[in-house]
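User: Could you go from structure to sequence for me? I need the amino acid at each position, not a summary. Structure tokens:
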């Protein structure tokens, strides 16, 4: 089945939030509900592994993906394998070239494929070279993954807490205009061809990306894209 319209990013994001709420409501291992943004961030770090189990989706590590899936990808969802489909993901010894943020890359790829499982289970395998490849499905799976791992409401709460802390201890102003600090950020960002511009808004975005990424166990690049997409830092 091939969709004849563009990607529905709003629906994909809403589905991710709905799935997160269902997972939290059924989680019998929670002894005390998270209260602070940092406690919620810690809870989200257990995902999407628990979500994959909860929705009955198989997860299988492989050394290579099926022919035609390409060598650049880390994972794919095949709805024809297993009762609820299977997420195939390359093992660390497969030679996949993402060692800098391996765990973070795996988590985002798993969330992306979970998005396919939850949104496109009737579409068939979707990868470049597949008979019914549909490029509109990829933005939806990305929107699902970004929302699932980095919910907007939680990001806003974390940013507010961080900015208040930085304002109190003076780190905000110091970091925004500290040449040594930005030399280090530039070195780290170079892995993703990012060149920090000279405006404070972009510097604040990168600073937040590197501060928030470890809290939610995503790469700084994924966090930067999410912050920019949600316009969380105003020019």
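Assistant: Here is the amino acid at each position, in order:
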């Amino acid at each position: 089945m091939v969709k004849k319209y563009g990607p529905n990013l709003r629906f994909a994001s809403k589905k991710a939030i709905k799935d997160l709420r269902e997972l939290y409501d059924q989680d019998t291992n929670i002894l005390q509900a998270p209260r602070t943004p940092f406690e919620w961030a810690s809870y989200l770090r257990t995902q999407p592994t628990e979500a994959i189990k909860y929705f009955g989706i198989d997860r299988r590590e492989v050394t290579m993906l099926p022919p035609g899936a390409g060598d650049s990808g880390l994972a794919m969802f095949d709805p024809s394998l297993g009762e609820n489909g299977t997420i195939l993901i390359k093992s660390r010894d497969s030679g996949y070239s993402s060692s800098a943020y391996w765990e973070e890359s795996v988590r985002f790829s798993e969330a992306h494929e979970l998005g396919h499982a939850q949104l496109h289970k009737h579409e068939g395998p979707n990868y470049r070279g597949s008979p019914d490849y549909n490029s509109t499905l990829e933005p939806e799976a990305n929107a699902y993954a970004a929302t699932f791992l980095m919910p907007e409401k939680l990001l806003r709460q974390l940013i507010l807490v961080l900015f208040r802390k930085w304002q109190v201890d003076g780190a905000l102003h110091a970091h925004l205009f500290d040449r040594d600090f930005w030399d280090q950020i530039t070195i780290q960002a170079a892995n993703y061809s990012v060149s920090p511009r000279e405006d404070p808004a972009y510097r604040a975005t990168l600073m937040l990306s590197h501060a928030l990424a470890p809290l939610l166990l995503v790469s700084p690049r994924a966090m930067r894209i999410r912050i920019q997409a949600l316009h969380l830092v105003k020019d």
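One structural detail worth keeping in mind: The beta strands are 58-62, 75-78, 86-90.
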